[in-house]
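Figure 6 in text form: structure in, sequence out.
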């Protein structure tokens, strides 16, 4: 069986370099490239279109957009458009976003499960080219459809994956989505609980866990210099532990450590603040929740996630040598 592997890009690289990485990953047999959309920095849709335009086979996914800031009609037409560009090569990865960022831009993430369920169900119906009337708690639409006049009018094959962290969202994902994007900065054994939750959700919908694709984001710092790889990861974790406390909680990180890092980092964090706080990240945490080190060390760690239920590692390159990472997992 062919080993599956995917690449994850966020905002650490020049966007035009990202196009080269997409082409190189395709050349080296990677099955997908996922574009992040998290902080108020790089939107996912524009890079996705760019990656799709310069490649021929590789799947392009959003990893992940949120379900609060795009009207359901716009969301559906956006993924219709991406599928026009790269037929059968687009995945809609969607998540519930996180506070304090959502709160700071005026979004009240009440009833996140209900909001996600409505979004996924109506998005799927619209991409199936149905005419939809629906009145829920979050989505209210009357007689809307993707009214294609010029172009393909058949239902679109755009799988929907939920980026789930919490227990209830994990179960819901197995019920209503095609796959789950398992979170990063968690130890491999985190997946044991995730597999149990996914199995329960799948059973509720008359499915099994094998019906749910389970790619997983994995922070991966690869360098022939072991210490350099570890230091690159330390800088990344400094920022993530401070700004995404839900990930810190899932990682089992002491909230005292998180609070101390948060006291140093502003928002947005500066390079100087990250350098000042990075010593607070315990080295054993780097080894526990990331795949960092030499190529052989990184591959061994990624295999631990696969053994624990990940169907396709989505490698988040940290440090400057993205092509070394691609070559390592080619």
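Output sequence:
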């Amino acid at each position: 069986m062919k080993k599956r592997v995917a690449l994850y890009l966020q905002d650490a690289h020049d966007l035009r370099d990202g196009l080269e990485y997409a082409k190189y990953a395709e050349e080296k047999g990677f099955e997908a490239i996922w574009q992040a959309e998290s902080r108020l920095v790089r939107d996912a849709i524009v890079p996705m279109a760019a990656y799709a335009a310069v490649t021929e086979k590789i799947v392009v996914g959003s990893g992940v957009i949120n379900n609060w800031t795009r009207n359901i009609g716009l969301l559906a037409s956006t993924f219709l458009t991406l599928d026009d560009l790269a037929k059968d090569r687009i995945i809609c990865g969607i998540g519930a976003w996180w506070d304090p960022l959502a709160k700071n831009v005026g979004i009240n993430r009440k009833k996140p499960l209900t909001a996600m369920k409505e979004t996924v169900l109506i998005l799927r119906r619209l991409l199936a080219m149905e005419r939809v009337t629906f009145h829920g708690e979050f989505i209210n639409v009357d007689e809307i459809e993707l009214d294609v006049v010029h172009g393909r009018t058949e239902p679109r094959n755009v799988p929907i994956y939920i980026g789930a962290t919490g227990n209830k969202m994990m179960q819901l994902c197995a019920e209503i989505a095609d796959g789950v994007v398992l979170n990063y900065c968690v130890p491999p054994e985190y997946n044991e609980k995730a597999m149990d939750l996914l199995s329960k959700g799948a059973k509720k919908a008359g499915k099994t866990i094998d019906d749910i694709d389970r790619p997983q984001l994995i922070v991966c710092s690869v360098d022939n210099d072991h210490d350099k790889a570890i230091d690159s990861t330390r800088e990344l974790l400094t920022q993530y532990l401070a700004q995404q406390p839900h990930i810190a909680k899932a990682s089992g990180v002491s909230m005292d450590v998180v609070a101390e890092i948060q006291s140093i980092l502003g928002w947005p964090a500066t390079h100087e603040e990250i350098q000042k706080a990075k010593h607070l990240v315990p080295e054993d945490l780097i080894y526990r929740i990331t795949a960092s080190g030499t190529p052989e060390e990184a591959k061994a760690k990624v295999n631990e996630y696969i053994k624990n239920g990940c169907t396709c590692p989505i490698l988040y390159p940290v440090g400057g040598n993205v092509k070394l990472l691609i070559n390592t997992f080619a």
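Caption detail: The chain is about 45% helix and 15% strand.
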